[in-house]
Amino acid sequence: MLLVEADGKTLFRGVGIAVPPGAESPGPWMVKAQVPVGGRGKAGGVVRCADAGAVAAAVAEQLGMRIKGHRVESCLVEQAATGAERYLALMLDPAAYAVRVLFAAEGGVDIEQAGTIAFRLCPPEPDAITAAIADLVAAEPDTWRQSLIDTGRRLAHLMLDAELILAEINPLFVSAQGCIAGDAKIVIDLNAIDRQPAIAALLRARPQTYADAVRKLDEGFDYVELDPNGEVGLVTTGAGLSMMLVDEMTARGMKPLNFLDIRTGQLRGSPARLIRVLEWIAAAPRVKVVLVNIFAGITDLGEFARLLADAIQATPALRVPIVARLVGRGAAEARRILADRMPAMEVEEDLDTALAHVAGYTK
Amino acid sequence: MIATLSRTTPVVVQGISGRMGRVHTANMRAYGTNIVAGTATRTDLTDIDGIPVFPDCAAAVAATGAIASIAMVPPAEIRAAVFEALDANIRLIVTIAEGVPVHDALAIGRAVRTAGATWIGPSTPGLAVPGEMKLGFLPDAALRPGPIAIMSKSGTLSYEIGWRLAQSGLGQSLWIGVGGDPVKGLRFADLLAPFQSHPATQAIILVGEVGGDEEEQFAAALTQFGPTKPVFAVIAGSEAKEGVAMGHAGALTFGATGTVTTKRAALEAAGVKVFATMAGLVSEVARARL
Fold first, then answer.
1. Are strands B172-177 and B126-129 parallel, antiparallel or unpaired?
2. Which ipTM was obtained for this model?
3. Looking at residue A125, what DSSP letter applies?
4. Which of 241-280 (A) contact B at CB < 8 A?
5. At the fourth CATH level, which superfamily is domain A21-79?
6. Among A22, A132, A165, A246, which has the highest number of CB atoms less than 10 A from its own CB?
7. Is B24 a catalytic residue?
8. B183 and B227 co-located in one domain
9. Structural Rg of chain B based on CA atoms
10. Integer Cα distance of B21 and A361 in angstroms
11. pLDDT given at position B250
């Protein structure tokens, strides 16, 4: 997952990569919306300000904005850096099982489309990455070439020690004073979080910005809020099927509240996880119906149906109709249990039939 | 290695004594998989349901001649388990753990490549040769012998598609779950040649999702390949939230990279029929009269 720029820069400072000084330094300043997405500039989330009044106005403008589904909870205010712009990035190359080292003698938002980025593939070792960077910057002037190599070496250590998937600096400002990271695009590996306490602390320090990731750390499963005004709460398992369901519903004009991979195999006889999800769905203001979709490969649907009924009874705040689509192991038993305990619930085997019921409630 | 798997391929289960190990071993055996050995760190076990248990892969291979393994150990232990299997000269390793760190996967991938072995993982429901054997937990309800080879990043989405195909009388020749991780063992493009040369396979279904560039690389490989068996695809995640991993660590988009739009365009340019819905894919494949 992507970190916001300010947290990426915290990681940079930790390994000695220079970043612009903060708001206390003289202007002009940059005001930058802290959301974990690309294309902030084009969405009005990056503004250059000449005086304090402009900074205040830009902050007021940005806070609360939504950029690609993310609400702006905070802004980074820092001195506008100066110098020539470069592009430097390290990313994992999955097909080569290598670290891809990328450099361009220009920076900026359009560099990735320009196709002028040179790269080398290296084993995941700091010395090899540093040597590749030295090679890529060989034509840079003496004034800052060594500083570029030094920045690259520090970035290599960060990449490997923090187990990053992507570490990109664009633009990287270069001048006679050395290198300054103008931006920080860092993709972390949530699977490695138990070994990376410093990154876990960054996530927990921004519980609203990283709500989806923090929820995963706390709960052990994936629930992503897609649209706070969504009308259909989803109780689903499996990342791919849940994504596809969201796509198909959206294409038909339905508004899903959430993506969910609850992992039915991990319920272990307890409705606790289902209760958590139903509570979140019940708390959303516009939900009109809940769709349960479970394809059970290993999970016994009879047991799942019992847990679902327990969870619904334990969540009185949930007052909307529930449509369930259950297929796989133990489906007949599940139907019997739900017909007995949840007679109002519509239980289907065919997904498109279930979706037609859901559409009826959201019209 | 993939195309030669059968009900005689000898398999060792690494971590056979855990809860998952026992459940999945019983299910695989019931399906027809030739499980000849297990490994466990517990020293008080000599067998589980008649399957001999060894302290490590080397001992299991020496005693039974296993050439494939499936690792049923927690994510943090996958790296050590694969290295152990490679040291024992296992040729095909399937790992099913969810949540393996990406840098571990990178180290595993490098070691597997050096050893010339095949790895499917880190997180996948496994593979099946329907009617013969399975390694992992692809659901029996969705498995049915037939002419279609499936490659999928997602477990559940492929179950749904396999099940719907089976409902309409269409089965599978080979089914490989490559998993939803950013760094992994076999990738879509690696499966093109084995699927093309596989005699029982008449068509290919690719079940993709947002993130990474596997679909794009598969499209490039397909263009290089020349005339091919028909390829059908769905790609999940057109409504994925940018910057957030959607359940799978690899299902992450930022900026214009890894989106359904770019993947769909690349696949269509290579002659793949890409569908926006599961129903659309299944009805078109059924119409193809394989």
1. antiparallel
2. 0.94
3. -
4. 241-244, 246-248, 250-251, 256, 259, 261, 263
5. ATP-grasp fold, A domain (3.30.1490.20)
6. A246
7. no
8. yes
9. 19
10. 43
11. 78
CB contact under 8 A, A242 and B156: yes
| Residue pairs spanning A and B at CB distance below 8 A | 200
**In one letter, which amino acid is B61?**
V
Shortest CA distance to B259 belongs to which of B239, B245, B231?
Answer: B239
CATH number of this structure's domain A220-362: 3.40.50.261
A112 contacts in chain B (CB < 8 Å)? 255
Mean pLDDT of A77-99: 96
* Contacts with A, B 173-232, CB within 8 Å: 180, 182-184, 187, 189, 207, 209-210, 212, 214, 217
Residue with tokens 């990376």: A196
Q: Comparing B142 with B243, which gets the higher pLDDT?
A: B142
Q: Which residues on A lie below 8 Å from B217 (Cβ)? A: 95
B-chain residues near A248 (CB < 8 A): 276-278
**Where in the sequence is the domain holding B274, given as residue range(s)?**
139-287
CATH (one of 2.40.50.90, 3.20.20.70, 3.30.470.20, 3.40.50.720) for A84-191 = 3.30.470.20
What's the full length of chain A, in residues?
A: 363
Residue type (1 letter), B191: L
Tokens of A262: 């609850």
Confidence tier at B1 by pLDDT (50, 70, 90): confident
pLDDT of residue B92: 98
Determine, for residues B251 and A239 on separate chains, whether the beta-carbon distance falls below 8 Å.
yes
